[in-house]
Every structure is written in structure tokens, then in C-alpha cells.
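Lab meeting, item 3. Inverse folding demo.
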């Protein structure tokens, strides 16, 4: 009814989403609850801008309340989602690139190596 069937594709569950992320203009997360999820981290590591709901426990911590690492919209608000997508589409390429770089740097905090360092530091402290 909206005339978007040639522009929006709902594919259902996919085991490996990497190729979809790489071919996208941006990644949008509409979750009502999300930790810094793998999709957000994978998107950032793949140099893709991320638009997320400002849901509890995660996206704002990763993106930043000041939106330096992506875009946030009000949780469970369709109007805010639309405004945020329009904001993204109107932003200049340099601003979007800078957000992408910041998000990519933050994604490094979620690597196995960082986890190992944190684990080993805590383990050695408690000996």
C-alpha cells in the first residue's frame, strides 16, 4: 500500500548477515531492548553507519548520547525513527564518515582480544 515493495525487503531470519550489512546504505535497529549487540558492532566494524532506538542497555552507550558514533531515535516512536532517517539522509558525507570512524573505534572494545585482556587482568588481580 505504501509503494515501497521494490525498496524494502523483509527477508526473515538469516544465519550470516555480513553480506547484507556490507551492501547496505545504513543499518537500522528498532529493538525495544538491546545490549551493544553483534549487529551494531559488526556494522561499525564494516564501516556502516548505525541508526538505533534509544532502548535500555546498550545503543546509547555504544553510539553515545551525543550521537558521535551513529544516530539514535526515541524508543518505540515511529515519528522519531522517520525524523532520524531523514536527518541521516540530509547530513553531509563528512559528518557521516566521522560518525562511522568513531563507531569503528568503539567496536574495537568488543573484540575477543579486549575481552581476554580484561579477563586476564581481573584473574591476575584476584590471585
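The presenter then showed the designed sequence:
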Amino acid at each position: 500500500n505504501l509503494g515501497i515493495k521494490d525498496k524494502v525487503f523483509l527477508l526473515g531470519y538469516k544465519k550470516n548477515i555480513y553480506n547484507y550489512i556490507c551492501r547496505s546504505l545504513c543499518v537500522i535497529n528498532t529493538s525495544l531492548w538491546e545490549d551493544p549487540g553483534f549487529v551494531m558492532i559488526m556494522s561499525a566494524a564494516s564501516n556502516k553507519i548505525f541508526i538505533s532506538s534509544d532502548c535500555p542497555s546498550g545503543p546509547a552507550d555504544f553510539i553515545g548520547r551525543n550521537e558521535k558514533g551513529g544516530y539514535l531515535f526515541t524508543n518505540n516512536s515511529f515519528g522519531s525513527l522517520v525524523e532520524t532517517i531523514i536527518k541521516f539522509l540530509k547530513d553531509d558525507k563528512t559528518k557521516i564518515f566521522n560518525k562511522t570512524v568513531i563507531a569503528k573505534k568503539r567496536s574495537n572494545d568488543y573484540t575477543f582480544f579486549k575481552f581476554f585482556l580484561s579477563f586476564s587482568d581481573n584473574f591476575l588481580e584476584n590471585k
